Amino acid sequence: MLDRGFLGGGIILLLIVVLIILFFTFVPVGLWITAFFSGVKIKISTLIGMRLRRVAPRKIVGPIIKATKAGLDLKIENLEAHYLAGGNVNTLVDALIAAQRANILLEFEQAAAIDLAGRNVLEAVQVSVNPKVIETPNIAAVAQDGIEVIAKAKVTVRANIDRLVGGAGEETIIARVGEGIVTTVGSSSSYKNVLENPDSISKVVLQKGLDSGTAFEILSIDIADVDVARNIGARLQTDQAEADKRIAEAKASERRAMALAKEQEMRAEVEAMKAKVVEAESEVPLAIARALGEGNLGVLDYYSMKNIISDTDMRNSIAKAGEPKKNHGERKDK
């Protein structure tokens, strides 16, 4: 009986220990004590409710203690709702504290909207206090004289808290500044004007209001570097001349091909005519024989015709023999 009583008491004690461990595990008593001594009034039931709503109490209690010590009056319900919405409670509280220290008007709802929009609200407050410098990549532009100029600018911006939600980011600022530099250089009559007065580019670009619709306010645009690159105008003229040359060569080849075709056509016609002449000459003896047989041509007339042909051939031979021969080997006097 003694052993059974001792065993039953041990089991009960073990159950009590397990229940106590489970209680302290589920109920964040340590956080409640920390909040109580930090001056934050929070109920145990509220912490248990956070557990039931799958909210990490430590991520709410820590920021609320921080906000209370900084003099901010924040409600736990608002922080819990922001956490459930997917926001970063700790960053939100840090941003509100930084805005209060810098005398920047930033309400909780506005800061929560900025954080839920995917922007770093703390970084936005810091940039609003301490402006940042955005360096553009190398921007190539061509002046009116055809010389390419490569410029690099440094843009000093300050965050605009009111336009952080829905405002464009740094990429838009860089793109607009690049467009302004290209337009300004393109309107310059010579690249020398750009090299002599790079600040003129900054003034013209700054007057265009490039920060409209963005989350930043442009304070200054400084041209950090200007280099002279290629002669685009001369290169374009060279390319145009090369293209014209190719077109002319193509047209000349076309005319040459047409001339060759015409020449071959004429040769074919000449050969056809020669063939007809040979054919006609081959029929002459037959015609003479037929004329002799029919009595249309006498023998004396035939020999008289042969004598005339022989006399004509002799005269042609004498005429060709009397022509002076060209001496191709003789050099011409200069």
What does this entry look like structurally?
With 334 residues, this protein is of the alpha+beta class. It is built from 13 helices and 4 strands. Strands 1, 2, 3 and 4 form a 4-stranded antiparallel β-sheet that branches. A hairpin with a 4-residue loop joins β2 (139-142) and β3 (147-159). α4 packs across α5 (76-84), α4 (57-69) runs parallel beside α6 and α6 crosses α7 (108-116). It starts with a helix and ends in a 12-residue tail after the last helix.
Number of helices: 13
Q: What's the gyration radius in Å?
A: 53 Å
Poorly predicted residue ranges: 328-334
Structural class of the secondary elements?
alpha+beta
Could you list some keywords that capture this structure?
334 residues; alpha+beta; four-stranded antiparallel sheet; 13 helices; 4 strands; 64% helix
Concise summary:
The protein is α+β, with helices and mostly antiparallel strands and 334 residues long. Helix content is 64%, strand content 11%. It is elongated and about 170 Å long.
